[in-house]
Write a structure and sequence with these properties.
This protein has a domain of 33 residues. It starts with a helix and ends in a 5-residue tail after the last helix. With 98 residues, the protein is mostly helical. It has four helices and no strands.
Length: 98
């Protein structure tokens, strides 16, 4: 019985023979090219926009750092002026040994 099933199976599955393949059926064609070009174009625009946003963020960060530095310098000047105002002028006239 087993031999009969194996023979039947072998007879039912013919061996494939090479045939000519239509190039229009296996190539992406014009639509494949158009869709690929659109995806590539979208990627280029997204990368361009991302670089613009990164650059803008860096510039804003640099400006923010400059403003913070200027604000700290202004506070330092105010503190120095306030310290100078609190100094007793008579201290300058006293001799160093007393």
């Amino acid at each position: 019985m087993h031999h009969a099933l194996a023979a039947l199976h072998a007879a039912a599955t013919p061996t494939p023979t090479p045939t000519q393949v239509d190039p229009e059926l296996v190539t992406p064609g014009v639509w494949g090219f158009v869709i690929t070009a659109l995806v590539a174009l979208a990627v280029v625009f997204l990368v361009w926009d991302m670089m613009r946003r990164i650059r803008r963020g860096r510039v804003r960060s640099d400006i923010r750092e400059e403003l913070d530095a200027q604000e700290q310098a202004a506070h330092a000047v105010e503190a120095t002026v306030a310290d100078d105002q609190n100094v007793d002028p008579r201290d300058d006239e006293r001799p160093a040994g007393r």
